[in-house]
Automatic annotation (TrEMBL):
Origin organism lineage: Bacteria, Bacillati, Actinomycetota, Actinomycetes, Propionibacteriales
Domain HTH lysR-type: 5-62
Family statement: Belongs to the LysR transcriptional regulatory family.
Keyword terms, alphabetized: DNA-binding, Transcription, Transcription regulation
InterPro entries in UniProt: LysR_HTH_N, LysR_subst-bd, WH-like_DNA-bd_sf, WH_DNA-bd_sf
Name by which UniProt lists this protein: LysR family transcriptional regulator
Organism annotation: Nocardioides hwasunensis
PROSITE patterns xref list: HTH_LYSR
Length: 299
């Protein structure tokens, strides 16, 4: 049987988690409940997993389903980004207008950049943006190559030949599920205790991972490598291991008590930095985006 990913089934899983009902999730997708049920059963058969179960109050995801849904959200975000980019590219070709290539690391792209872009478009509606979401090292490459006019990273590692400006700061947090022994600690964890644990981390080249490694002054022991913040949070909730993430990503989990922030002795603050080529002064749209970022993060 083919192991190709079924995007509709993945959207269905994410919507079941949001809606708590297979029928409601199907309606959000514009399909009937029988069609939604068939899609879900086919997905479970294809991957030999049980991802959802019926309850008296509706449909809920299993532990495996929650993990898959967390992974799916990041993938679907990327798919929607590509679709939106293609639509914008098509519209620009037919209508004209200026083009701005922006590269951003995942934390910036998910949690702060949308507001900046909204303000830019409100003041400069003729600007069409091409957004690339990559890890910090790749953002650096895209700006150096000239593929993107401006980039935003959350890493201290920036190429020396790039111009840069710190626009704000972010302090990472270590989170565990409420059932984890660390959740009940009243004293901070030492560096030695953290080095003995296995963590859920981002891939190499990620600003989140480099900040954690710099603070530890060592390579952490790894339980799982995740390509997105959403996947890290899902893995932490599933008990795979503690996760080091931006607080933007776990506010809901911390508010509900599903996740607990762990006290520790590390300095996990990192700058949010704009970068661009020294030999190419920022054009009006890129300069405007930089001003908006600085103003909002300083507020």
């Amino acid at each position: 049987m083919s192991r190709e990913l079924d995007l509709q089934a993945l959207r269905l899983l994410a919507l079941i988690e949001d809606e708590g009902s297979l029928g409601a999730a199907g309606r959000r997708l514009g399909i009937t409940q029988p069609a939604a049920s068939t899609s879900l059963r086919a997905f479970e058969t294809r991957w030999q997993l049980r991802v959802a179960e019926r309850t008296p109050r509706g449909t809920r995801l299993t532990a495996d389903g929650e993990t898959v849904a967390a992974w799916a959200r990041d993938l679907l975000h990327q798919v929607d980004t590509v679709r939106g980019g293609l639509q914008a590219l098509s519209a620009r070709r037919s209508q004209g207008g200026s083009d701005l290539g922006v590269a951003a690391s995942l934390t910036v792209a998910e949690f702060v950049l949308p507001r900046w872009i909204g303000e830019l478009r409100a003041s400069m509606p003729e600007v069409h943006l091409r957004l690339q979401v990559q890890n910090s090292d790749r953002v650096d490459d895209l700006v150096r190559s000239g593929e993107c006019a401006i980039g935003f990273v959350e890493s201290t590692r920036v190429s020396e030949d790039l111009a840069r400006r710190v626009v704000g700061a972010d302090r990472l947090v270590i989170v565990v599920p409420a059932s984890h022994p660390w959740a009940r600690r009243s004293t901070p964890l030492s560096r030695e205790q953290l080095l003995a644990a296995e963590f859920v981390v981002r891939e190499e080249g990620s600003g989140t991972r480099s900040t954690f490694e710099r603070a530890l002054a060592a390579q952490p022991r790894i339980a799982m490598v995740a390509a997105s913040t959403t996947a890290m949070v899902g893995a932490a909730l599933a008990g795979v291991g503690p996760a080091v993430v931006t607080p933007y990503a776990v506010r809901a989990g911390l508010d509900t008590g599903e996740l607990v922030e762990v006290r520790h002795d590390l300095d996990l603050e990192r700058p949010l930095t704009a970068i661009w080529r020294r030999d190419r002064p920022l054009d009006d749209p890129a300069a405007a985006l930089l001003r908006i970022a600085c103003r909002i993060l300083a507020a």
